[in-house]
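Students often ask why we bother encoding 3D structure as a string. The short answer is that it lets us treat folding as translation between two languages. Here is a chain of 418 residues written in the first language.
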Amino acid sequence: MPKRNILLLTACAVLVSTFLIIPSSTTRFYLAVSIGLAAVAWLLVAFMSRRSGTSQESSGANVAGEKQTAGPVFPVSDLFEATLESMREGLLVVNSDMRVVASNKAALKLFNLSPPQLESQRLTELTRNPAIYSAFLDALKGIQRDSVKVEIHGPERQIYDLRVLPLGHTNGNGADGALGVFFNITRTERLELVRQEFLSNVSHELRTPLTAVMAFVETLENGAMEDRESSQRFLSIIRKNASRMHSLIDDILELTAIEGGNVQLRSATVELHPLVNDVIASLGAKAQAHGITLTNQVRADIRVYGDTRRLEQMLTNLVDNGIKFNRENGSVTIRYEGNSRDRLVVEDTGEGIPSQHLERLFERFYRVDRARSRDLGGTGLGLAIVKHLALLHGGEVTVTSELGKGTAFTIHLPRVAV
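And here it is in the second language, the structure alphabet:
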């Protein structure tokens, strides 16, 4: 094996090992980007060198009387083209006149051209985005841009991390060309936004009960302990807020485990009627305290297929919501409907939910009435947990509501012969 190939393989092994042991996902991402850019640049150089030396290689290969026996050889140009077309990242190469000399399918899709043609066009004809143009212009001046955030507004808003580097000789007159790679980071940006929003919501939800706990502890420390009646009332409030924080943390951990794929279902045939009875029994005292009647309308012969514990968890969350947001002397009814799917319906006689809130009802921390929800002890994660558990079963959860008449949540489960 040639010495150059041995060195190349060794370098690759070292880079892969480094990539695997780095704990930071951000660092790994930028390392992968650097490796990708280096590989593409190497292929371009190899391709150009191959083309310039084609005539010399052909003449040397036809020396009279010499025959060489070798395995299949793939032309560098074919390998280069296959690499470009298989890349998910958009690749664009321009010459010193800012005309496109090479591109791939991903770049074609990125610019959404009609007719679909990039080569020989000026960059200004492809896009008016100033961030893209200035990045390539800097590269032609010999300035490498490590990262440029680019937003492209088409049918959907897409966000790209653009890396542009000079190609060819860089002297006082600038580079011969520039290579740009567009990395689609739309999903990463959305996840980061969700993460920031989640942390903000968690901080906000914890701040209120924590502030109350600290305030009443300080009051007790300042002498309220001597007043037995007041101290008991303060301790009761502290306990209530501590319990609320505990419930919030439990729900966060539960939702994180479900969304992270760390919850495994133990599906089996489940008798639905006794399961609903267990849910009603667990919430009976709370329903009675609110003057709410709980009714099980599921027939005794009904069986569904799912995880018993998770089905009970979903029904408990929905019935608990039905109790908290019901009207005085209202009711919550649990029933079964079957057609192409098994449907578990939890219906209450509350005030109903305005239609503009229904689409976002299953989002984390989304509340129709924030003040009332917090007063009733809600964490804002119960419906999100129900949604993800239903999806985990291969089903879904839907909601219908009518103002002044009540709300019905329906868990749809795939029907399995039971």
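Translate back mentally: The radius of gyration is 32 Å. Keep this in mind for the problem set.
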